[in-house]
Specification:
By secondary structure, the chain is α+β, with helices and mostly antiparallel strands. The chain is built from 16 helices and 13 strands. Strands 3, 6, 7, 8, 9 and 10 form a six-stranded antiparallel beta sheet that branches. Strands 2-1-4-5 form a four-stranded mixed beta sheet. Helix 3 runs parallel beside helix 9 and helix 10 runs antiparallel to helix 11. The longest helix is centred in the last third of the chain and has 27 residues. The radius of gyration is 24 Å and the shape is globular.
Length: 417
Amino acid sequence: MTAPPWYRKRKYPHFDQPLSVAEALTYVTSPDKVARHNFFPFLAYELRKRRYKAKNSKGVASVKSRPIRIAAHRDGYIFSYYAWLLSRAYDQTIKGTPIDKCVLAYRKGKGSNIEFARKAFSEVERRRDCVAIAMDLKNFFDSIDHAILKQQWCRVLGTLRLPDDHFALFRAMTRYAHVSRDACYGALGIEETERAPRPLCDPMTFRSVIRGGGLIEINRDDYGIPQGSPISAVLSNIYMIPFDQEMAKLAADVGGYYRRYCDDILWIVPLGCGERITKRTEDAVGRHGTHLKVNGEKTVISYFSDGEITSGPVLQYLGFTFDGKVWRIRSQTLSKFWRKVVYGVRAAKKRAAKAARNGGDGRLYKRKIYRRFTHLGKSNFLTYARRAWSGPGGKGVRSQLRRHWERLQEEINRPPR
């Protein structure tokens, strides 16, 4: 059976087993089954990434933490199917409206970050005299107001109240239950995720150890949805419809350019409008739920005159920077890539050396390295970057990576430490 567009094979450990295409299709397309479905708690963990550009007062690299919630397998198929349905309903709702071109993230067929960044930078080049304002919504998914979400959910469905199956999903996403993955593994005696059993435990153990052990936490606030579920992205777009409409109207009033990519907002407006636009955006965000706020520390304002920056830092947008003439990959993104190259090559060398010590094949298999870190791979950072430098204005990206092959060979040939 051909898999539908919302289905993907799931292998991660959870409290239940994955379903086949036929099993998933039979279950999720039955509104009665979905309405009566008992959702497992999400497995919760923090995704931590070291940030090397900023140092705290003690001189230690800072860490960016993002809460992730992983749905059980059957729950995930339900979320994915209804996300597919809601995405179509959302697109139909905003079709032909000003916000159709303003909302970029999680919309199939709208393009990639490369195209979005290129269009934004081209807009600066076209205007030449303008202000670019990049803003960030603080703790976006954790701040989504449930009452507004429910209202907008009904709106895209064209109903006055949520049908029973949709209401079951609304409850699962707003009063969501979650279990700390570390606490769960500790209670079940699991030491490593790679060796975790599938499922993590049988139903009796779940009831006695997980539920009976008080490990399940429930969101009892009237705001916040879990980040990381298959349906979270489309729900965030649905939630923001009134805000996007207000911003699109403001853009039309001032002759500006407004784009939103999830929690990233970009304005490009005439000189003299920057302060007004920033204030109006902050006020609109504040009205769209009591907990939704602009992260003022991340607001960046860049002034362009005659096509060149006259004040403020270079414009940063979706992983790229632009100074009015040339656009480049953000230095932090590039540094992260080179760290992956170094760590990946060293790990491959260690595996080869270990194999040699054990009497096996001690050769370094460069083909795998090339697939991961060069243009010879099908889908990696270099193939993505080549798409960026191949278009207009891409010479800056090309210059950043002109020695990538030589640097990789230097690392491969470097004697082991």
